[in-house]
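Colleagues,

For the teaching module next term, I've prepared a clean inverse folding example: a structure given as C-alpha cells, and then the sequence designed for it. I'd like students to try predicting residues themselves before seeing the answer, so please don't circulate the second half yet.
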C-alpha cells in the first residue's frame, strides 16, 4: 500500500464511521419516540385511598387469611374505578397505559405479549403469586424499582386482598386460593425459633463482623454518626421505631409504634419487607436464626447503657 492508498483507506473508514454515527442518531430518535398512547394520555396517579382504620401494620393478617374473607365484588368496583384508568380486564382486551390483566394471577411477570414493560418488570423471574401481587400493590415502586406503573400503592390491606380476589377471577380457570394454615392466621412470630436462648449464647463479635461487610454499607453505628443510605444505628435497641431525628424514613417505618424490642428486631432482620411492607431498606434479610441473634447482640452493644437481655 502506498501513501495514497492508505489515505483512501483512512477516508473510507472515516466516512463509514460518520454514516454509522448518523444512522445511530436516527435510530435513537426513532426508538425514543414514545408510543402514541403515552403522548395522548397524561394521567396523574390517583389519590391514595383513605388509610385503613385497622391497627398498626404488624397486625396485618397473611394474604391467605385476607383472601379467605375477601370480597371480589368490592375489589371489582375499586379496580374498575382506579385500575381501569390504565388496564383492561377482559380476555384478549387491549393494552391501555398498562397491560391487559386477564390471566395475570399465576401467569409470569410481564405476562402480556408485546407490551412495553419496564426493564425492572421484565427482569422479574417467576410467576405472579398472591404474595407477589400483595407486595406489588402495596407499593409498586418498591416491588419493581423503576416500574412504569405510576400508581402509589394501595395501603388498605383488606382492599388489596379484595382487588387480588377480583384479579384471580379474571380467568377461565382461576388458580386455587392459598390454604389458611394454622400459623399463617395468628401472629407470625411463631414461625421463628425463640430468640431468648439464641441471644443468651449469641456472639456479638461475629455479629459485628457480619455487620461490617453488609449493614455498614448503609449504616453508621457510632454515637452521633450521620445517615448514609440508612439511619445511624446507635441506641436503636429499645429506642423508638424511626429513631433517628431528621432521617427520611418510609411511611411504613414511621407508622410503626412502640420501641424496638428484641422480638421486633428479630422479625425485622428476618424479612424487612414483611415486617414493614414498603420499607426503604433494600436488604432481603438474614435467614439464619443464630446469625440474626449475633447481629442483634451487636446492635445491643451500640449504647452507653445496653438494654438488659430478655
Ligand atoms: C396510571 C396507570 C396505572 C394504574 C392506575 C394502575 N396500573 Fe397497573 N400497570 C401500569 C403499567 C404501566 C404497568 C407495567 C409496569 C411495568 O412495566 O413496570 C402495570 C402493571 C401491572 C401489573 C403487572 C402485569 C403483568 O403483566 O405482569 C399488574 C398485576 C397491575 N398493573 C395491576 C394493577 C392494579 C390491580 C391496579 C389498581 C389497584 C393498577 N394496576 C393500577 C399502569 C397502571
Ligand atoms: C442497602 C442499604 C441497607 C442495608 C444493607 C441495611 N440497611 Fe438497615 N436500613 C436501611 C434504610 C434505608 C432504613 C430505613 C428503613 C425505612 O425507612 O423503612 C434502614 C433501617 C434500619 C433499622 C431501623 C432504624 C430505625 O431508626 O428505626 C435497623 C435497626 C436497621 N436498618 C438495621 C440493619 C442491619 C442490622 C443491617 C445488616 C444486617 C442493615 N440494616 C442493612 C438501609 C440498609
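(Answer key — instructors only)
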Amino acid at each position: 500500500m502506498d501513501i495514497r492508498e492508505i489515505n483512501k483507506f483512512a477516508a473510507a473508514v472515516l466516512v463509514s464511521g460518520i454514516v454509522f454515527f448518523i444512522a445511530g442518531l436516527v435510530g435513537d430518535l426513532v426508538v425514543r419516540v414514545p408510543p402514541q398512547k403515552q403522548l395522548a394520555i397524561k394521567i396523574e396517579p390517583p389519590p391514595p385511598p383513605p388509610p385503613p382504620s385497622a391497627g398498626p401494620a404488624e397486625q396485618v393478617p397473611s394474604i391467605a387469611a385476607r383472601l379467605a374473607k375477601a370480597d371480589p365484588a368490592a375489589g371489582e368496583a375499586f379496580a374498575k374505578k382506579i385500575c381501569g384508568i390504565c388496564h383492561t380486564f377482559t380476555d384478549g382486551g387491549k393494552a391501555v397505559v398498562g397491560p391487559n390483566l386477564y390471566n395475570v394471577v399465576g401467569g409470569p411477570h410481564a405476562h402480556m405479549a408485546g407490551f412495553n414493560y419496564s426493564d425492572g418488570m421484565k427482569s422479574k423471574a417467576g410467576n405472579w403469586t398472591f404474595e407477589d401481587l400483595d407486595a406489588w400493590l402495596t407499593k409498586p415502586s418498591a416491588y419493581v424499582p423503576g416500574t412504569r406503573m405510576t400508581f402509589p400503592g394501595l395501603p388498605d390491606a383488606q382492599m388489596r386482598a379484595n382487588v387480588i380476589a377480583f384479579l384471580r377471577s379474571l380467568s377461565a380457570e382461576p388458580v386455587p386460593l392459598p390454604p389458611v394454615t394454622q400459623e399463617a392466621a395468628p401472629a407470625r412470630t411463631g414461625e421463628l425459633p425463640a430468640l431468648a436462648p439464641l441471644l443468651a449464647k449469641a456472639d456479638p463479635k461475629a455479629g459485628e463482623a457480619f455487620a461490617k461487610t453488609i449493614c455498614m454499607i448503609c449504616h453508621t453505628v457510632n454515637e452521633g454518626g450521620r445517615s448514609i443510605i440508612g439511619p445511624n444505628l446507635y441506641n436503636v435497641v429499645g429506642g423508638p421505631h424511626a429513631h433517628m431525628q431528621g432521617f427520611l424514613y418510609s411511611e411504613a417505618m414511621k407508622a410503626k409504634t412502640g420501641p424496638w424490642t428484641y422480638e421486633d428486631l428479630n422479625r425485622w432482620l428476618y424479612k424487612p419487607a414483611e415486617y414493614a411492607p414498603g420499607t426503604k431498606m433494600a436488604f432481603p434479610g438474614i435467614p439464619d436464626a443464630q446469625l440474626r441473634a449475633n447481629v442483634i447482640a451487636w446492635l445491643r452493644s451500640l449504647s452507653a447503657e445496653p438494654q438488659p437481655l430478655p
